[in-house]
Design goal:
The structure holds two protein chains of two kinds. Chain A is mostly helical. Chain A has helices at about 5-40, 45-100, 105-115, 120-130, 130-145, 150-165. In chain A, about 10% of the residues are buried. Chain B has one domain (about 15-205). Chain B is built from eight helices and no strands. Chain B starts with 15 loop residues before the first helix and ends in a 6-residue tail after the last helix. Classes of the chains: A mainly alpha, B mainly alpha. The interface between A and B is medium-sized, with 33 and 27 residues.
Chain lengths: ~170, ~210
């Protein structure tokens, strides 16, 4: 879970760097275009002018392609961001439905969620302002309702769905 | 963070091109209006920078992501008036990009910026900052031919001279208009943010701080 913000930060840095580069590129191109227009008034048939005009046209094309590539990058990042949000939402939907199917009480659902997030008994007790014994008893009831042997199997119940049937053969 | 983005919501963070061009132009205009002297090296350099940023933003308006494109905020004075009326009554709609009044402001800014930079180019005869620096260095070292060349260019053709004069007038008027628009823009942002109960500045800076 902690990797997700890093991907977003890295994406932001990348697009910001590309944008700054694009600004510098545009500045250079604007200068060149100004220069070419000046030359055009001086001597439009000179080799100097023709050469510079070609270079400037390449610069302009470079900006257009750079802009287009940057837009694609930004849209790709957004799509990933959205896919991640959808996946999270979907997973929490699955968990909700399963908790309902097991007929967990609201308190048990909260404890179950926290347990799935990887919090230990002491942390859950502190968060909920309950005694550790209470939390331990709730967890035991959750495991028995779910028909799992303990926390590892409880968590694996949901991960298994995500992994699908792909269990690789032992190497 | 986990809330999915709906298409109707404005961006929680504008893309970097929009932000860089916005703040680059804002700072350059303020510095050129208040801090430096017209015709100075800094003034001319910032003018060229504004021209480049403006060109990039206009290209971005065609090729950029959806909410940065002109098609997301077409100029529509009727819708702009309606939006201002809604704002006065306290009920405002959310828009996927700029609101219609803000959009009109953006187009007004771009028109003024184009006028200011082009008239600036006419006034300097299209001199790049390098040429301005060269001329100033030449004059400083006692070679006044740069000044003569400039005045010759002006006196040789009366039409050119009057064109420069007109450009100077337009440059002054539009520059002041820009400052008025900027003040209106800031007021508009604050009023809109109050009505929507969300920050409009954060998306233009770094977005919401992560929890």
């Amino acid at each position: 879970m902690t990797a997700a913000p890093d991907i977003i930060t890295a994406g932001r840095r990348q697009t910001a760097a590309l944008s700054i580069f694009l600004v510098v590129q545009t500045l250079g191109t604007v200068f060149f275009v100004g220069d070419v227009i000046g030359d055009l008034r001086a001597d439009p048939m000179s080799v100097h002018f023709i050469f510079e005009a070609v270079v400037t046209a390449a610069l302009v094309l470079g900006i257009l392609f750079g802009t287009f590539a940057l837009r694609r990058t930004i849209e790709l990042l957004r799509a990933q961001d959205q896919a991640l949000a959808v996946a999270r939402g979907a997973l929490s939907d699955v968990i909700d439905r399963q908790f309902q199917a097991w007929a967990l009480t609201p308190a048990e659902r909260d404890v179950g969620f926290l347990a799935l997030k990887g919090l230990d008994v002491a942390e859950i007790a502190e968060l909920r302002g309950a005694a550790q014994g209470t939390v331990r008893a709730q967890l035991t009831r959750i495991y028995s309702k779910a028909g799992v042997s303990g926390r590892a199997q409880f968590a694996a119940f949901f991960v298994e769905d995500l992994l699908g049937a792909a269990v690789p053969a032992a190497a | 963070m986990a809330t999915p983005r709906t298409t109707a919501a404005p961006p929680s963070l504008w893309d970097p091109v929009v932000r860089i061009t916005h703040w680059g132009i804002a700072v350059s205009v303020l510095v050129n209006a208040a801090l430096d002297e017209g015709g100075s090296l800094l003034h001319v350099s910032l003018g060229w920078l504004v021209l480049a940023l403006l060109v990039l933003r206009l290209v971005w308006g065609v090729l950029g992501p959806r909410e940065a494109r002109f098609s997301a905020f077409p100029p529509n004075p009727v819708a702009a008036l309606r939006h201002v009326r809604q704002l006065a009554s306290g009920r405002v709609r959310h828009y996927p990009s700029h609101n219609p009044a803000g959009a009109l402001m953006a187009y007004a800014f771009w028109a003024c910026l184009a006028l200011v930079t082009v008239t600036g180019l006419v006034m300097t005869g299209g001199a790049t900052p390098m040429q301005v620096a060269d001329d100033k260095a030449a004059v400083a070292s006692g070679d006044w031919s740069a000044l003569i060349r400039e005045s010759e260019g002006e006196s040789s053709e009366d039409g050119d001279n009057s064109l420069r004069h007109t450009a100077e007038e337009v440059h002054e008027v539009v520059a002041n208009l820009l400052l008025i628009l900027a003040a209106l823009h800031v007021v508009g942002v604050f009023v809109e943010a109050r009505a929507l109960r969300r920050s409009l500045v954060a998306p233009m800076v770094l977005g919401q701080r992560r929890k």
